[in-house]
Amino acid sequence: MELGSVLQFLENKTILVTGATGYLAKIFVEKILRVQPNVKKFYLLLRAADAKSANERLRDEVIGRDLFRVLREKHGAGLHSFISEKVTPVAGDISHEDLGVKDSSLKDEMWREIDAVLNFAATTNFDERYDVALGINTLGALHVLNFAKKCVKIKMLVHVSTAYVCGEDAGLILEQPYHMGMAKKGDEKIDINFEKRMVQEKLNELKLEDVPEKEITSAMKDFGIERARLFGWPNTYVFTKAMGEMLLVNFKDGLPLVIIRPTMVASTYKEPFPGWIEGVRTIDSIIVGYGKGRVTCFISGPRSTLDVIPADMVVNAIIVAMVARAKQHSEIIYHLGSSFRNPVTVSNLHDFIFRYFSEHPWINKEGGSVKVGKGIVLSSMPKFYTYMAFRFLLPLKALQLLNILLFKKYQDVYTVLDRRVKLVMRLADLYKPYVFFEGIFNDLNSEKLRIISKETCHETDIFDFDPMNIDWDDYMMNVHIPGLRKRRAEAWLIEVVDDGGCGCGRARLYGWPNAYVFTKAMGEMLLMHFKDYLPLAIIRPTIVSSTCKDPFPGWIEGLRNIDSLIAGYGKGSLKCFISNPKSDIDVIPADNMVVNAIIVAMVVHAGQKTSGIIYHVGSSLRNPVKLNLHDFSFRYFRKNPWINRKGARVKVKKLAILTSMDSFQAYVAIRFLLPLKALHLVNMLLFRKYRDACAVLDRKLKLLRRLTDLLKPYVLFEGIFDDKNSEKLQIASRKTCPETNVFNFDPTSIDWEDYMMNAHISGLVLWKILTYF
């Protein structure tokens, strides 16, 4: 058999991909679009209610991912038109006949044009509901087959399964098909139609009993495990995948069928770049848990091998297999793994993650480095149960007893811990067949494909899938674990952004003083990470105040940071001020500093493919405003007193300067708390006569404390903002810009005395008067 050119084979082909938002499917689509842009078209089946929803999923969950970074860099602004020409999103669902495609004209078009069908769609949850897993992994495979048979130009169906359809087999596991009804244990044959009827009857029974949805889910999960183990499979996932294979082999007729059985799929080895991963794959939960200090023991059989394969190698094998098997009418199975030719052991994994996290510790939520130990290796389930008993179950029983004695004082804590321990025990039960797996996957068919590819393919380097080429030490230490860590950081970031309870508590958990600066920091993280080729300049102004010159001095809208203090002092409401003697107040006028800097930065960076540049726009480094802000306010309001609502002038005095939070708390206690306590006492003696006054003062005091707590990081701020990038921009502007005076943003040109006394404070007073009327 000669393979010829893979790229030539892909040219002008139309390919249907199901499960298009899945991990391998995305890598497959990206690879072909990148190496063979002359592919005719992709139909991507996406679970969606309509075409609009399918388009949104394509944009957000496929093309919008970092995986497509290389394509974005290659096509630039033309990517959108390229994708529009080459990719058609299709709303559908493989658990329905005709893949749930409702548009009849689109369906006819697909049947006329499709050359190859790639079925990536699956639910990979080991603990999935039986009805869901059966609908997607088993009956879904049959629906894809029936759809492919209607395609008049069809050359093959490629079905992505899993190597672990072998169940708990040991020894050398061959690339052999499952024929209809084959069970792994017992004499009873599997009747898939009977399984389908049983699922429906079980659901009907639960609904008739008016069982809550949560309990139905739990019951259907248990039912799936029960049926899987009855026939010799360890969980619902591999059982339903095995039945899907049975249906394909039995009903394929003359359709060329390729079944791909990858082992544990890890991050990309090389393409489109090393270390890309999405979600937490099988071994990754162990790696992440260990790095975070949560996994302190490992369950592993002495003869166990971890069969790991990078995702891009799986995709390369799929593409080569498509070319090799086109028009071959018999089915063929390919194991894609490493255990037979280049194994990595559990012991190797322990060593990799210990060395990695010792050199590059995980940073916890408090900003501290997590120290990791070697970890305890438990070589049997009885040892695991003993470890769990001493480490968790006995302390939990002690807490339960204490809870009873103290009238359920710790009931919430006990409930949470009990739920977590039960979850760990269930997961251990589900994963037991894999941590003690003693099989080796023979890959004779895959090896034959590799040999043919090397001998007759023109693009061997582009489609490498030889596990012998993997240097596990380099891959784990420099590619996979760093890639996984990066992905977890991104997922954390998005999770925190999406968290509805993200406020001061969440901000302080991660080291920021309030929700405003925390969410702004996360916004910058997203911009820097996802900007790709787009020129990006980030402007970081300090405390923005009124205009200095343009369009006229002193224009302001709203109370800025320092303005509430100035206005409060002028009104006679503010008697004290918290300030660190070492602090500079970093103020910058809105117009000829911030806005001018933005305009000049726009001009300089237009079309520049920079890595993202940041400009501090402030005054603390080169023209600081010291504590003479107090002096400016005092002198201004002595000369120009505030007029209160009664028409009287407000007399101001020098402020009491409090240099620490301790002195502020003492001031508040003497000035407000003690009088308030006295008022509370009088209120009680006079039968709550002053109840309303007490409530008002209580509320005001709580507000004062909250505002002080929020502003504390700023009034006691000791930082100075380096503006080296802004200074370089100013120099470049002076040398090359003919309109330097029009776009001046040099803070050294500000005369703070003149600005404060004749522009800012007067502008602030005017704005307050205008808003009053």
TrEMBL record:
Top-rank EC class of the record's enzyme: oxidoreductase
Domain of life of the native organism: Eukaryota
Keyword match Lipid metabolism: yes
Domain Thioester reductase (TE): 17-318, 507-598
Entry annotated with the keyword Lipid metabolism: yes
Domain Fatty acyl-CoA reductase C-terminal: 393-486, 673-764
Keyword field: Lipid biosynthesis, Lipid metabolism, NADP, Oxidoreductase
One Pfam family hit: NAD_binding_4
Catalytic activity as recorded in UniProt: a long-chain fatty acyl-CoA + 2 NADPH + 2 H(+) = a long-chain primary fatty alcohol + 2 NADP(+) + CoA
Family: Belongs to the fatty acyl-CoA reductase family.
Function: Catalyzes the reduction of fatty acyl-CoA to fatty alcohols.
Protein's recorded name: Fatty acyl-CoA reductase
Organism: Populus tomentosa
